[in-house]
Write a structure and sequence with these properties.
about 400 residues, Rossmann fold, 8-stranded mixed β-sheet, 6-stranded parallel β-sheet, globular
């Protein structure tokens, strides 16, 4: 994508705080990756300060691209919250010491791991403060702090209309609806790595395979999917289920245990988290992709990127009727929609997609068209550019 000029100071610098890694697709990493791509297309120099609360104890500093650098602090899962808070707080000092003075500070969410430190750094540096409002409040973030961050932001990017409404009710100054967007070059039309990926996974060309990508959080509904798939295997013993992801949050479902208890070891392929760049080719190996989210307030508020990635892959998609994405695909007939928490309904939809391939392919093509028309990186970059151009920045001398 060609670089564009923002019409602001040539030395404009962005400091970005996020509790995830843009090279991974889970835990908000995909959204972060695309936001960084959009900023880079505007020739903005970005310093990303990342906190990982599920890794091993480590500090790293890397160059992701000519315009983007990352400083990452990792701590093991299960360390006391006081230590996590101290680690997060240290990112404030790291950002002040390791990056040039920013004209813009961006927080990945209003949460304590990015919103709080983003607010503090923006005040210390007199930079404009933007929040990418991606999800409802997490349990570790006190509600008064959550509301303060949203009210204090110069701009709140809302990923769904429900989050847009919430920010408005809280009193956010300016709200821009910025839904999920994708780099469609990662999902090229007419190109498929199906045969190569299936060979790598030791799956036959004719074997029917269901795919799931993402977190093992209880909100994702993996027990529902595994029950539906188990029933499917009663008369389709050669069917396969590819699950790509991990237990990246507390209280996540123990998928390995469920697979063992249901005797699905020969049918289910479990891959751990994959580099974000590899996800599209893995999706291409599936015959149908599933997002079986359960009915929950958190799912009503969010707008999960995986559904849009499924659409962009042009593989038939099945999603439960929860949240904004499901409403959109139902209206546009871009995916099959089932009631949440209903294994039998999910099983019927999977069988229908298998037995009615022409209908499934038609739905998949509508899904791809929807992604192209409304959810491209180019469209989102224009919206972000327009928003940033309207901000007033102090002159930057740099460091």
């Amino acid at each position: 994508m060609k670089s564009v000029s923002l019409g602001m100071a040539t030395k404009a610098v962005v400091t970005y705080f996020a509790p995830c890694d843009p090279r991974q697709g889970m835990g908000g990493g995909a959204r972060l990756n695309l936001m960084l791509r959009a900023l880079e297309s505007m020739s903005l120099e970005t310093y990303l300060f990342s906190y990982d609360g599920s890794g091993t104890l480590a500090l790293s500093r890397e160059t992701l691209s000519p315009k983007t650098r990352i400083f990452k602090i990792s701590v093991p899962r299960g360390v006391p919250k006081a230590i996590k808070l101290m680690t997060v707080t240290s990112l404030v000092f790291a950002s002040l010491a390791l990056s040039r003075r920013p004209s813009i500070v961006v927080a990945h969410s209003p949460g304590i791991a990015s919103g709080l430190i983003g607010l503090v750094v923006s005040r210390l540096t007199r930079a404009s403060f933007l929040v990418d409002h991606m999800d409802s409040r997490d349990p570790d973030t006190p509600e008064p702090l959550y509301r303060l961050v949203l009210r204090s932001a110069d701009v709140v990017f809302a990923i769904s209309h429900r989050l847009e409404k919430e920010a408005l009710e809280i009193g956010a100054r300016k709200i821009v609806y910025l839904p999920i967007f994708l780099d469609l070059d990662r999902f090229p039309k007419g190109k498929t790595d199906r045969s190569a990926v299936r060979s790598y996974l030791n799956i036959g060309e004719e074997d029917f395979m269901v795919g799931y990508f993402g977190s093992f959080s209880r909100l994702e509904g993996l027990p529902v999917l595994l029950e539906a798939f188990s029933n499917l295997c009663t008369d389709m013993p050669e069917a396969k289920l590819l699950i790509v992801g991990a237990r990246n949050v507390e209280g996540a479902d123990d998928v390995e245990l469920i697979v063992r208890r249901r005797g699905l070891g020969k049918n289910v392929i479990l891959l751990g988290p994959q580099p974000y760049a590899r996800v599209p080719s893995l999706m291409q190996a599936a015959d149908v992709l599933v997002a079986p989210k359960i009915r929950a307030p958190e799912n009503e508020m969010a707008n999960p990127i995986k559904i849009y990635e499924y659409l962009a892959s042009e593989i038939p998609c099945i999603t439960s009727m929860v949240g904004e994405a499901s409403e959109l695909v139902r209206e546009t007939e871009a995916a099959f929609v089932v009631e949440p928490d209903d294994p039998e309904a999910l099983e019927r939809a999977i069988r229908f997609a298998l037995k009615n391939r022409a209908a499934a392919i038609t739905v998949a093509k509508k899904g791809r068209a929807l992604a192209e028309q409304r959810h491209s990186l180019g469209i989102a970059s224009c919206m972000i550019r327009s928003t940033l151009s309207a901000l007033r920045h102090p002159d930057q001398d740099g460091r």
